[in-house]
Design goal:
Elements: E1 2-8, E2 16-19, H1 20-24, E3 37-40, E4 47-50, E5 55-58, H2 64-68, E6 75-82, E7 87-96, E8 109-115, E9 123-125, E10 139-144, E11 150-156, E12 162-168, E13 179-188, E14 195-205, E15 213-214, E16 218-224, E17 232-235, E18 238-239, E19 249-253, E20 267-269, E21 275-278, E22 289-298, E23 305-315, E24 323-329, E25 333-334, E26 342-349, E27 359-362, E28 369-375, E29 378-383, E30 394-403, E31 410-420, E32 428-429, E33 433-439, E34 447-450, E35 453-454, E36 464-468, E37 482-484, E38 490-493, E39 504-513, E40 520-530, E41 538-541, E42 549-555, E43 563-566, E44 568-570, E45 580-584, E46 593-595, E47 601-604, E48 615-623, E49 630-640, H3 647-650, H4 658-689
Parallel strand pairs: 1-7, 8-14, 16-23, 25-31, 33-40, 42-49
Antiparallel strand pairs: 2-5, 3-6, 4-5, 6-7, 9-12, 10-13, 11-12, 13-14, 15-18, 17-21, 19-22, 20-21, 22-23, 24-26, 26-29, 27-30, 28-29, 30-31, 32-35, 34-38, 36-39, 37-38, 39-40, 41-44, 43-47, 45-48, 46-47, 48-49
Length: 690
């Protein structure tokens, strides 16, 4: 917003200038919380803000003449800055002129000379009175005390200044009156009217009776700024009707107290030719016009002089580049900032005028930002699209200011805007499924597998912690078997695992970041328990107590190849550890029996002798593990003559027990699980390759 107030220059300090809270539409109670502060563009502090009342107060007495000089308007520019949200308001205070200065002449007494042969109509220029006030309070008119010979004439020059001149109305006679005493009064247009006076003494001289005359007496010249030093401005056209020394004119600058010596530093005057040239660089931005008064004086006795007035108006040239001022910058900005969020407040200045001072701002179109004009020469940089820190963590924003001059002038300013992270990305495992293997009976604390996850966010939003979830698939919580290091994702065993009890585990792992709110994702690690040869073979038939022997009778006339019995054994291990082999511990050659190595069948190896004594056999069952484990059974085989060679009677094999059935089922489930996991892994790898 832009506010405008006015205040007379004679207002006392502490006076109210304007109701800021009301004009801004802001609750007075929120001004302190929003850190309302006042910034003066000129660097001087003339005002203050009453936060309790929400009004702008005058801090010190204003002097319009000291602040703005002879400018027609006098404005003080302020900036109000409020936070939460960040806002910038421009305040313009017009200082109104008060008629507090009376007109004053440069000198209290003016001495003039005039020849006695001067013709009626001869003009004698007078010093212009000064009044620091402006407008109607400035000088309005002049008055001259009554005189028989002289009257007052007032001319208005190009800048509106009234120039008094004394005009001779009646021929003079020096022998009658040699000196005339007059009073010149300057009146301003204030209410009440104020005035100033100067005494005018006119000496009537004898002799040279034709003064130099300028043609025209008042002229205007237009000149571009920055012309080279020595450029001819004009040549004065002055004539003097006298002859000889009385008509020989010399030129000189007439210094006025209104602008003492200013133009003499920039212009030179040839005293003989009347040529006026530049001797310094002219700058439109410093002054757009110069008033030059020239005195043309002849060499008569007494000398006579004429006065030329030249107004030099400068034509602006586009010689100043725009200036970019970064008033405020909110960095960093959150990546989830909504479109229209104010990022920066930018001001622009150009000392040139007209089109040369009209400036437009530009930024690169591909940036997710745009410029919005707040008010004259002030812009807001706002977001125009979504921000993503994970794609772009910051922007180098170049603001370019271009004026409308010909040729154009431009300048640019670059600043860096950092994008702050928001927890908008969940952690991501390198793979949703992983496979691990662990040896059964491994010591508690054995490292099984390390999962790995990543999070594109930063800081606490990317700080990850791992945990194991209870999936409800096992009767016993999975945490009783495994634990995970919450920092690095390494999975350890909690206790020794038994392959014969659990062959595979599904361990659901969750990774969670430390953002607010926290985001997470899960993965499953299939842990396969590797079998160890920790179970010795178990003889299920014949079943005899430990330390006892199994008695078996066979026909005394049993022929070689006769099936005596079959040793049946099982091993809770799997694979090679469960491959069993059967053998006799005693020398096979001494016994008429033999054992089938793989099947465990005991057969007659050679014909038996009549009345042969019972034979004692020790059958050993050994697995294929490393180290190998074994079990043995003692058989006592007794030949009997009355025994019939009947296989069904001689061999009573046991039926499969439920334990054997369960063991077979576990083996089948393990093979199926391994096959399924392998298929899933192949599918994941194929998908990543595609």
């Amino acid at each position: 917003a832009q506010l405008r107030y006015s205040v007379p220059e004679d207002r006392e300090p502490g006076s109210s200038v304007g109701d800021l809270a009301k004009d801004l539409g802001v609750d007075v109670r929120s001004l302190a919380a929003r850190n309302l502060r006042l910034v003066s563009e000129g660097g001087q502090r003339h005002f203050q803000v009453d936060l309790a009342a929400g009004v702008l107060l005058l801090d010190s007495r204003l002097d319009r003449e000291a602040l703005c000089g002879q400018s027609l308007t006098c404005s003080l520019h302020l900036q109000l800055v409020m936070e939460n949200p960040l806002q910038l308001h421009r305040v313009e205070v017009d200082v109104l002129d008060v008629n507090d200065n009376a007109p004053q002449f440069p000198k209290p007494e003016v001495v003039l000379e005039i020849t006695e042969v001067a013709n009626p109509g001869t003009r004698l220029p007078l010093e212009v009175a000064e009044d620091p006030d402006m407008g109607s309070n400035s000088i309005s008119t002049y008055e001259l005390s009554p005189s028989e010979h002289f009257a007052l004439s007032i001319n208005v020059r190009g800048d509106g200044v009234k120039m008094p001149e004394i005009v001779l109305e009646k021929a003079l006679d020096r022998e009658k009156v040699a000196v005339h005493h007059l009073t010149l009064t300057a009146l301003d247009g204030g209410n009440p009217v104020k005035s100033g006076t100067a005494k005018v003494t006119i000496h009537v001289l004898d002799a040279n009776d034709n003064p130099p005359v300028c043609d025209p007496p008042i002229s205007t010249v237009y000149l571009e700024e920055n012309v080279p030093v020595g450029t001819l401005v004009t040549k004065l056209n002055v004539t003097d009707l006298d002859e000889g020394p009385n008509g020989d004119v010399e030129y000189s600058f007439k210094i006025s107290n209104n602008a003492p010596g200013k133009f003499t530093n920039l212009f030179s005057l040839d005293p003989r030719t009347g040529e006026i040239r530049t001797k310094g660089l002219l700058d439109y931005e410093e002054s757009s016009a110069y008033e030059i008064a020239v005195r043309a004086r002849d060499k008569g006795s007494p000398a006579m002089e004429g006065h030329c007035h030249l107004r030099v108006e400068l034509i602006d040239v586009n010689d100043n580049s725009p200036e970019i001022v970064l008033t405020s910058l909110s960095s960093p900005v959150l990546e989830d900032a909504t479109p229209g969020t104010v990022i920066a407040l930018i001001g622009v200045k150009d000392s040139d005028s007209g089109d040369n001072g009209q400036v437009r701002l530009q930024i690169a179109k591909e940036l997710p930002f745009k410029l919005v004009s707040s008010f004259k020469e002030h812009f807001s940089l706002v977001t125009s699209g979504p921000l993503d820190r994970e794609k772009t963590s910051g922007y180098n924003i170049t603001v370019r200011a271009v004026d409308s001059g010909s040729p154009q002038r431009a300048t640019q300013k670059t600043f860096y805007l950092r994008i702050a992270d928001v927890n908008d990305n969940a952690p991501n495992f390198s793979s949703p499924f992983d496979t691990a293997h662990v040896q059964e009976n491994a010591l508690p604390g054995t490292s099984v597998f390390s999962v790995s996850a990543s999070d594109p966010d930063e800081g606490s939003n990317a700080k990850l912690s791992y945990s194991i979830l209870h999936n409800g698939m096992q009767d016993v919580p999975i945490s009783t078997y495994f634990r995970i290091d919450q920092d690095n994702g390494t999975i350890y065993t909690v206790r020794a695992l038994d392959y014969e009890q659990d062959k595979v585990f599904q361990v659901p792992v969750e990774v969670k970041d430390a953002g607010s709110p926290a985001l997470s994702s899960t993965a499953v690690v299939h842990v396969f328990v590797l079998d160890e040869n920790d179970n010795a073979p178990t003889i299920v038939y014949p079943s005899v107590p430990k330390g006892s022997a199994f008695h078996q009778t066979i026909p005394a006339l049993a022929e070689p190849g006769y099936l005596v019995t079959k040793i049946v054994a099982v091993d809770a291990d799997s694979g090679h550890n469960a491959w069993l082999s059967y053998q006799l511990q005693e020398d096979a050659e001494a016994l008429p029996f033999q054992v089938e190595r793989r099947s465990g069948e005991i057969r007659v190896a050679q014909a038996l002798r009549e009345s042969e004594d019972p034979h004692r056999l020790v059958v050993e069952v050994r697995d294929n593990g490393t180290p190998s484990l074994s079990a043995s059974v003692v058989l006592v085989i007794s030949p009997e003559e009355n025994s019939v060679q009947d296989f069904s009677k001689s061999l009573d094999l046991p039926k499969s027990s439920p334990k054997d059935t369960n063991l077979t089922l576990y083996l089948i489930i393990s093979l199926v699980s391994i096959s399924l996991v392998s298929c899933v892994m192949f599918a994941v790898v194929a998908a990543r390759c595609l």
